[in-house]
């Protein structure tokens, strides 16, 4: 099943501007984004140093459940991908272009993506990252992730029902004064 492509401007990352079920368009966006990542960002996203050809092959074979992207100056600057891995489970990956890191783009995509995936019935979001990916580790720890260190990698699992509970609590109106 093709994924959903949702584009959003940096100023309003949760505003969905476009939806598409065209797998070729999704793959094209992935390919362009992968190529835009600098060496460190590629290593953090792919846990290695893939060649441009390898990145293109990954994009050409991708069959994501969900792709969220943030667009600035007419180009995708950050992307979240989610790939169903087993019934009820989804593997999530986030990448942000070098010069856009540290601006909250990954966090915005991560939070939006988890809410969408939970609403679609996924129970667990799994991520794998290098130990040096401290920004992602901080992000997932805030989401109540279970983490297991293994050599230089971190295996991460997030229970999505907890994410929805948190969203519901934060969206609930505050009790009236004197109530």
From TrEMBL:
It holds the Pfam family Acetyltransf_1. Its EC number is 2.3.-.-. Gene3D superfamilies: 3.40.630.30. GO terms for molecular function: acyltransferase activity. It comes from the Bacteria. The keyword Acyltransferase applies. Residues 21-165 form the N-acetyltransferase domain. The keyword Cytoplasm does not apply. Keywords: Acyltransferase, Transferase. SUPFAM superfamilies: Acyl-CoA N-acyltransferases (Nat) (SSF55729). This is GNAT family N-acetyltransferase. It comes from Rubellimicrobium aerolatum. The lineage of its organism: Bacteria, Pseudomonadati, Pseudomonadota, Alphaproteobacteria, Rhodobacterales.
């Amino acid at each position: 099943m093709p994924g959903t492509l949702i584009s959003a401007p940096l100023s309003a990352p949760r505003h969905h501007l476009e939806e598409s079920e065209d797998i070729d368009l999704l793959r094209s966006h992935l390919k362009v984004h992968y190529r835009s990542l600098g060496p460190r960002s590629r290593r953090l996203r792919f846990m290695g140093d893939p060649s441009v050809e390898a990145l293109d092959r990954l994009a050409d074979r991708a069959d994501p459940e969900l792709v969220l992207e943030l667009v600035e100056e007419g180009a995708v600057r950050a992307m979240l991908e989610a790939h169903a891995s087993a019934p009820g489970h989804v593997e999530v990956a986030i990448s942000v272009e070098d010069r856009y890191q540290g601006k909250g783009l990954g966090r915005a995509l991560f939070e939006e993506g988890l809410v969408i995936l939970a609403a679609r019935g996924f129970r667990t979001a799994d991520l794998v990252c290098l130990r040096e990916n401290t920004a992602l580790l901080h992000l997932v720890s805030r989401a109540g992730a279970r983490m297991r260190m293994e050599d230089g990698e971190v295996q991460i699992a997030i229970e999505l029902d907890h994410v929805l509970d948190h969203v519901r609590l934060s969206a609930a109106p505050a009790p009236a004064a004197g109530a």
